[in-house]
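Notebook entry, structure prediction.
Reason for the run: the old model in the group folder had no record of what sequence produced it. Starting over properly, with the input documented here first.
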Amino acid sequence: MALKKSAPPSSPVPAQADALRRALRYLGYRPRSETEIRDYLRRRGHSREVAEQVLEKLRSLRYIDDESFARNWAMSKTRNRAYGPDRIARELRAKGIAAELIRQILRDIFGRCDEKTQAQRLLAKRFGGEDLRDLKTLRRAAAFLQRRGYSNAVISELLRNPDGEE
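New structure, fully documented this time:
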């Protein structure tokens, strides 16, 4: 059985159409940042130029917008997972969101609700019936809050005074 010769290199238009099709399918699962889409297209073998052209097309169609993506993503993680500002910032940075935009979004979200109050609610929900004066439980609670992205200052303040007394 003879091997077929590969097709000659295709023109840039079909490559761009293929990249756009892939990007739209990738966006169909959930909203994405520009960096996520760019990296996805590059992993699929598309050139940097084609990836940038596709991103420009998606921007013009308003299918991607890093600010609204980051704001919605952060609000969702705050509301549904009770993530703190440190974890949200870390994950948004990993998604390629600009540092200034992250700071602005965190100010907007955590300016409205007190980080300490949110951490206190989360602590009560997770460790409600347990004695936080026990060293082992105290360590577990601190590690839990740290994984959720709360600052060390908030954690130490909460756990120094587990009953909420000042």
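Summary: Residues 12-60 form a domain with the Arc Repressor Mutant, subunit A fold (CATH 1.10.10).
The old model has been moved to the deprecated folder.
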